[in-house]
Write a structure and sequence with these properties.
The complex is a heterodimer of chains A (221) and B (388). Chain A is α/β, with parallel strands linked by helices and 221 residues long. Chain A contains seven helices and ten strands. Chain A has one domain: P-loop containing nucleotide triphosphate hydrolases (Rossmann fold, 3-Layer(aba) Sandwich), CATH 3.40.50. The chains are: A alpha/beta (221), B alpha+beta (388). Chain A: InterPro entries: AAA+_ATPase, ABC_transporter-like_ATP-bd, ABC_transporter-like_CS, MacB-like_ATP-bd, P-loop_NTPase.
């Protein structure tokens, strides 16, 4: 499903060259729940961003569903992200001025779905994460766990093939973290969603199918 | 998308209020300036109706004369001697109210069974051709009309359209200044100046010797040197034996009078340009600030599938929607002025000013939004999301 070949990412300034990722080769199969672990600054999020087509590698090839991403232009990549990928971030990234329902509807706005259908789909996604009763609330009125559940609803509302989660439990306490992890496991098991999750938490990582460890930009496991 | 943008604007109404007010007040001020400028420019562009180039006016004063017959003889002699000069192509007397004099005499009446309101002007028959007025109906009066019972008059087209359209002019006598026979209609005569509006005007005929006609208009041959004024001066002085007459160059007076309007109009436009620059800078600043505060949101939207075009469209759409709302509110207030027909300004001037102000502001908003919106579209999503 996702095939990364010799992915290298180098950040270059005038005086310093920093290698964030060094020749990473990784294959993620459909329906797999993969976790990526490693110390801070080892390149986990960079790798996830490259997988999510929101960052570009300095070298290497990405293939998604067998198609080389280099063939995509900016508009095609935006459409691909919209239709095939769902993002969950550590800091939720909800838009404070929009209600929970409107936040969840956001990916559908870029997909020309009618407002009636958007609303239906967003309500269904919120029901899946148990937040339908909060859909008129604004992010500022929610707890951290609730915010992350909204973010999950937003990630799944467009029924993407892959969910990319960047430390989804990183800002939550253990109870809420478990709650979020259970939702992700449920999505993987029941809906066969492919999930790639970056985490610091060994316990969470062990619940996934496969664990990839990074150190100083290189894959060590 | 439009609904989404409107929802965002509504939910961020507090932060949008400043922009809304800025656009609203900019519109209000531009509307006021453009109304004044439009009014003046439209009046300026409407024809003056008579020539000013190569026209000199000898202003004489017959207020304290005792021997009317002598003055009448003097007037005819003066005209004839001046007309005999090769540098003078023609001469004609008109009444106290000469072009650009700042004087006017208006009379209103319903004695004819309908309302009439007109400026009263007096001239001898030769005046119209000398001044280049355009006849659109009937004829100019001539000296043979003096033998008739009723004083002949020619009226302006505007006066005709306003009060006499569909009425019989040829065989009727109307009460204007006494009983008058209207013999012709002329096109325009904006004797108050280029920047004034056309007024209803009526010329009544007088004999050139009449002391009611103290201003002698001279058409000077092109190429005549300015020094010729001295010759005219000496001739007038010797024939009239007066010392308090003046010689006016009508074109110069016109230019001086116009300058008195141009200066405030240009100043107003200067203020408007200053305002426009301020609004542009304000808009630019607000947008830069807004985008810098919303980098993470831009990154998020791109991650969720927004193309660069969609990001640009979103920012431009938000600003345009706020601007259009402010302009609509401004238009609601502005439209009251033409509806109530206040300040004596023609409604079309208000509507043109509204269109110009709204068009200018929208253009400005689009231009000021374009670059920041383009910058927003170029934000690297991974970087923007990481920053937060």
């Amino acid at each position: 499903m996702i095939h990364l070949q010799d992915i290298t990412k180098v950040y270059q300034t005038k005086s310093i060259e920093t290698t964030a990722l060094n020749r990473i080769n990784l294959q993620v199969e459909a329906g797999e729940f993969l976790s990526i672990m490693g110390p801070s600054g080892c390149g986990k999020s960079t790798l996830l961003n490259i997988m999510g087509l929101i960052d570009e590698p300095t070298a290497g090839h990405i293939a998604l569903n067998g198609q080389q991403i280099t063939a995509y232009n900016s508009r095609s990549m935006a459409r691909f992200r919209n239709e095939q990928l769902g993002f969950i971030f550590q800091s939720f990234h909800l838009i404070g001025e929009l209600s929970v329902l409107d936040n969840v509807e956001l990916p559908l706005i870029y997909r020309k779905v009618s407002s009636k259908d958007r609303r239906k789909m967003a309500e269904a996604a919120l029901e899946q994460v148990g937040l339908k009763n909060r859909m008129r609330h604004f992010p500022g009125q929610l707890s951290g766990g609730q915010k992350q559940r909204v973010a999950i609803a937003r990630a799944i509302v467009g029924q993407p093939k892959v969910i990319l989660a960047d430390e989804p439990t990183g800002n939550l306490d253990s109870v809420m973290g478990n709650e979020i992890m259970n939702i992700l496991l449920h999505l993987n098991q029941e809906q066969k969603a492919t999930i790639v999750m970056v985490t610091h938490d060994e316990t969470m990582a062990r619940k996934t199918h496969r664990l990839v460890r990074l150190f100083d930009g290189s894959q060590v496991l | 998308m439009i609904r989404h943008i409107l929802k965002l604007i509504w939910n961020k109404k507090r932060s949008n209020t400043l922009l809304f007010l800025e656009i609203f007040f900019a519109f209000a001020i531009l509307f006021a300036v453009f109304t004044i400028v439009t009014r003046y420019m439209r009046q300026y562009n409407s024809p003056l109706g008579f020539d000013t180039e190569h026209i000199w006016v000898v202003h004489m004063n017959f207020d304290n004369i005792t021997d009317t017959a002598a003055v009448e003889d003097m007037k005819l002699r003066l005209k004839s001697e001046l007309e005999a000069m090769p540098q003078i192509e023609g001469a004609a007397y008109n009444g106290w109210i000469s072009p650009f004099s700042g004087s006017n005499w208006v009379t209103a009446s319903d004695a004819n069974g309908f309302d009439t309101e007109t400026s009263i002007l007096m001239a001898e028959p030769a005046y119209f051709e000398l001044m280049g007025l355009e006849l659109v109906q009937g004829r100019w009066f001539d000296l043979s009309d003096l033998e008739g019972r009723y004083t002949p008059a020619v009226i302006s087209q505007q006066f005709y359209e306003e009060s006499f359209k569909g009425r019989n002019l040829r065989d009727s006598i109307y009460e204007l200044q006494g009983e008058n026979r209207i013999v012709g209609v002329f096109k325009n005569y904006k004797y108050q100046g280029d920047f004034t509006k056309e007024e209803n005007a009526t010329f009544f005929m007088r004999h050139p010797k009449d002391i009611d006609l103290p201003n002698l208009h001279l058409r000077i041959a092109p190429g005549t040197p300015a020094a010729f004024e001295e010759t005219v001066n000496k001739t007038v002085a010797s024939i009239s034996r007066m010392s308090d007459f003046t010689i006016e160059h009508l074109e110069t007076t016109r230019k001086v009078q116009n300058r008195e309007v141009w200066v405030p109009v240009v100043s107003l436009l200067g203020i408007a340009i200053f305002l426009v620059i301020n609004v542009a800078m304000g808009l630019f600043g607000v947008l830069w600030y807004s985008i810098s505060k919303r980098r993470a949101e831009v990154g998020l939207r791109q991650a969720l599938g927004a193309s660069r075009g969609a990001v640009m469209g979103q920012f431009m759409g938000e600003i345009l929607a706020v601007s259009v709302a402010a302009l609509l509110l401004g238009a609601v207030f502005a439209v009251q002025l033409p509806l109530m027909e206040v300040f004596g300004i023609a409604p079309l001037n208000y509507y043109i000013a509204m269109g110009l102000s709204a068009g200018l502001i929208l253009t400005l908003v689009l231009l000021c939004t374009l670059y920041p919106a383009l910058q927003a579209a170029r934000i690297q999503p991974a970087l923007a999301l990481h920053e937060e």
